[in-house]
DNA sequence: TAGTGGTCTAGACCACTCA
DNA sequence: GAGTGGTCTAGACCACTAT
């Protein structure tokens, strides 16, 4: 390891902010000055500062220089779990069961969300994910058959829809929403719990090349937690 | 803009994965080959590939080369909200009220979590955050007075504890947990809702230079959602 | 207009790890 | 041992923007 790596510089800059040498909102020296101070190339300083800017700690502007962020917004990176791996990571046996599979016209709310026309039909799926044969998560999903025509022939009994989709349309964009809800009777029954139990819900919509692929809601068993380090 | 920037290469590589040229788990060409193919320096290729590896799309190993990730784990970056900003972003008026402020010995669960000794006392705070004078979130917090001695003199009536802490110990590490729970009577009362209502909970513990600073639970009003793009 | 960050290059050496 | 990614350098030009 060289004595001046972009890692060590990153740490050093962090320390200098921690120590109060540069306070919130302060302008810190230019890349050129820092390069001279640390005795390294500007490129190396640039890399360290960019990394810190990525985490939201620094704000950088051409000509304006680099400032310590006034109100550092804390960011957390979560891994959207793949249920099978999550279950197996806990040493449990994973299994899932397809509860429903129908082609029908989605309700208006779903249609709006997916920007599909009123007469378009979509595939509706309900799946229960089991850990050691006990309910782990209940999944309700709509799949756009126009975008993914092959889905109706997929072996959904052996492979979960999610895994099939990951393998088939692996790279896509989308959004996620986390929320809490009281279990409806249907969800409670699927998860083998009482109605009104607080359920952690992940709502996820996926797009591929500007075309809607799928939207789903995952209702997790009671007590589920999503964890991340800051 | 140069014709070959690391951005354009990043996009190009993405496209080639999308198109199926490189499938899940495939080895992609080495940096040197790609540099030749794109007619740019290896550094530029490196930058593009590192960015893709950061998002979890590629897996890179020295000598092993670069592969398309077998099971791309979706990552979502969330901004841990600052309540005041969140409320004001919705065009509402923010206000908060300190409901309790006591120095006492934390329960065992909290002590364990914070690795403090059984006889150590800590500051306990309860705050209600209001949007247009209606409950938005209820906060219960423990603050380590040894780490942050000045907290007992802080003007907590005018500034929320959170804001005071951000200004005072701005940069720290920590962890976050999201979960759902049925409102206890106390929480329900604070949020002016019925007991058993499903509540979205953010549990957050903060450290500064290996010393525990604070741990808190935020109970959000009914219907709260946390959103992120993938 | 001048100063700052953004980026590319060409070359180099190193660290890791697969065979 | 050899091939791959990880990183640093020195220099260059450019894009943006505060003044």
What's the arrangement of secondary structure elements?
2 copies of one chain form a homodimer.
Chain A: H1 6-18, E1 27-28, H2 31-38, H3 42-54, E2 58-61, E3 65-68, E4 74-80, H4 83-89, E5 94-104, H5 108-114, E6 122-131, E7 134-143, H6 161-168, E8 173-182, H7 185-190, E9 198-208, E10 211-220, E11 225-229
Antiparallel strand pairs in A: 1-3, 2-3, 5-6, 6-7, 7-10, 8-9, 9-10
Helix pairs in contact in A: 1-3, 2-3
Chain A binds a DNA duplex (19 and 19 nucleotides) through α3.
Fold and architecture overview:
2 copies of one chain form a homodimer. With 230 residues, chain A is of the alpha+beta class. Chain A folds into 2 domains: 6-68, Winged helix-like DNA-binding domain superfamily/Winged helix DNA-binding domain (Arc Repressor Mutant, subunit A, Orthogonal Bundle), CATH 1.10.10; 83-220, 3-Layer(aba) Sandwich (Chorismate lyase). Chain A contains 7 helices and 11 strands. In chain A, the strands form 2 sheets. In chain A, strands 5-6-7-10-9-8 form a 6-stranded antiparallel β-sheet. In chain A, strands 1-3-2 form a 3-stranded antiparallel β-sheet. In chain A, β2 (58-61) and β3 (65-68) form a beta hairpin. In chain A, α1 packs across α3 and α2 crosses α3. The radius of gyration of chain A is 24 Å and the shape is elongated. The two termini of chain A are 27 Å apart. Chains A and B meet through α1, β4, β8, β9 and β11 of A and α1, β4, β8, β9 and β11 of B. β11 (225-229) of chain A pairs antiparallel with β8 of chain B, so a sheet runs across the interface. Chain A binds a DNA duplex (19 and 19 nucleotides) through residues 1-2, 4-6, 30-32, 40-44, 46-47, 49-50, 60-66.
């Amino acid at each position: 390891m060289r004595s001046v790596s972009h890692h060590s510089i990153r740490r050093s800059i962090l320390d200098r902010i921690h120590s109060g040498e540069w306070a919130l909102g302060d302008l810190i020296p230019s890349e050129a000055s820092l390069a001279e101070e640390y005795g390294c190339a500007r490129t190396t300083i640039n890399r360290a500062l960019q990394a810190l800017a990525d985490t939201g700690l620094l704000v950088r502007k051409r000509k304006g220089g680099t400032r310590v962020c006034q109100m550092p917004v804390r960011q957390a990176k979560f891994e959207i779990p793949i249920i099978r791996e999550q279950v197996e990571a806990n040493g449990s046996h994973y299994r899932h069961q397809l509860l429903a599979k129908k082609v029908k016209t989605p309700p208006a709310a779903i249609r709006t969300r997916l920007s599909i026309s009123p007469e378009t039909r979509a595939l509706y799926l309900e799946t229960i994910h089991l850990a050691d044969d006990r309910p782990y998560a209940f999944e309700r999903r709509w799949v756009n058959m126009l975008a993914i025509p092959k889905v109706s022939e997929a072996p959904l009994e052996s492979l979960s829809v999610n895994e099939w989709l990951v393998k088939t349309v692996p790279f896509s964009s989308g959004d996620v929403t986390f929320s809490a809800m009281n279990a409806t009777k249907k969800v409670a029954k699927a998860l083998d719990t009482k109605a009104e139990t607080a359920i952690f819900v992940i709502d996820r919509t996926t797009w591929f090349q500007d075309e809607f692929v799928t939207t789903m809601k995952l209702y997790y068993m009671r007590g589920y937690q999503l964890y991340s380090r800051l």
